[in-house]
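Translate sequence into structure tokens.
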Amino acid sequence: MSGGRGAGAGTRRPLRIGNASGFYGDRFSAFEEMLTGGPLDVLTGDYLAELTMLILGRDRLKSPDLGYAKTFLRQLEEGLGLARERGVRIVANAGGLNPAGLADAIRLLAAKAGLAVSVAHVEGDDLMPFAEGALTANAYLGGAGITACLRAGADVVVTGRVTDAALVSGSAAWWFDWAPDEHDRLAGAVVAGHVLECGTQATGGNYAFFTAHDVRRPGFPLAEIAEDGSSVITKHPGTGGVVSAGTVTAQLLYETQGPRYLGPDVTARLDTVRLSDLGADRVAITGVVGEPPPPTLKVGVTRIGGWRNEVVFVLTGLDIEEKAALVQAQLADALSQVATADWTLARTDHEDAGTEETASALLRLVVRDPSPDRVGRTLTSEAIELALASYPGFHVTSPPGPAQPYGVFTSSTIPSTAVPHVAVLPNGTRQPVPPVSSAPSASEAHGFGGGAPAGSGAEPGDGGPGAEAVLTRTTPPEAPAGQATRRVPLGTLIGARSGDKGGDANIGVWVESDGAWEWLHATLTVDTLKALLPETAGLPVTRHALPNLRALNFTITGILGDGVASAHRFDPQAKALGEWLRARHLDIPTHLLSAPEGTGP
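Result follows.
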């Protein structure tokens, strides 16, 4: 297959690296689309997330031969031949909990297809057995194992739990023969990897200003990474969506926390990132500064947290609050022995509605308990038994069902020296990968991969860990006297993207002009955020500023409970938290609303 300098080709031309998967279940055809849509040197696939590890852990309970992303293997049935034909190396974390098993399955697939393909894998991240009750426990490895496999001539490299960006940074280190202490170059590749890792989120998917572009079927992104670590984010010609400074900014802010983006190979300073819109779906990333990594690795642990069930009651027409109160009272005795029972009333009803559906509200009951019996079909049947004895118009959205297990995700850290990072080369040689030299840091307690040191970059007076406490405002701030303003949705001016990190959520917001940035920085404090999003009241919130991106990033600690698998909230991954913020109304200076950013990028 094609080779960079690391493969002995003696060239330092830019590495052209693309991504064909942002999660387990992403567009199946993307693998073939990326291989046939234009030239590539490396194609990556990101299949792992906190929830995915729980799913794979349950698969492994069924059979020790499972535990990897089966979709990836099916994509290779045609993709492996295409990659071989076009000289594209494949790097994916689809190995999950069983990278060795996936590597063997790929070899078998290649043999059946008559393809001469060398396969390697990276392991050592799996720390099981771990704590009592743990279903999975995995350290987040860096890209050095990937680099070693590619240097040994691997055409396909599969890994377990590496950081998402490591798929790109490990490939770039191979291509350019970077040394482990070339922090700025590695940091640039990590930032490019972070942009690519979620696939079409960098090309117009889930984008705040989506109405300004045709994003019906966005193409997957790729990066042209230069030897100095700078990059250009783009996509194959003729594919849908858009690559702009706005789409790249949105992805840079996704699931990150402080200015220091901590990783096992390098710490990338997000506050040094500079973007240049080169036009025609090309955005340059330059200026990224890198620092040594922390001396610890993040460890993600999943376990079965208990059992859950739910019933959604439909309340139609008049007296919505009274109807909700009646059914809650009727079920009070049945719920008295349940560990937790949460009621949520969503007022989706409209006055004098023209359809029955728009005249209806939804009352959601979610129950959780260590025992499946206490929240099983017997309990949900009691709710259904009220059908002729409760509020007028009683009905529910689904029949009674059995309890379902739910998961819990927690994270901790472990010294990087305690994790046996190993590259298993195509010839079977097991090559240990030594930890990267690190600098002691306050970040040690927080791990990495979007985590920030306590207070690192946090602005005084903005609350949250490491910052001064502030009083919570109960109403949004008033506009300065004498300044002409209009009360409009905040999203008229700002873009936002939000996501989850375990039980925490982050919201990144940005604007597109210096004047709007001055206003945003002064106005959207933690105090104001809590006033606009009352569900954050009482929770620790930290604000970080990224002036080069004209962006603020908020971390809301604990809002997601035990993480996505526990289904703690209506929006368990905080995907729409930023859109809720954009929908809130605020007094915005009229001169900013007439600027281009007010109508999208």
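Note: Residues 1-5, 441-458, 460-474, 595-601 have pLDDT under 50 and may be disordered.
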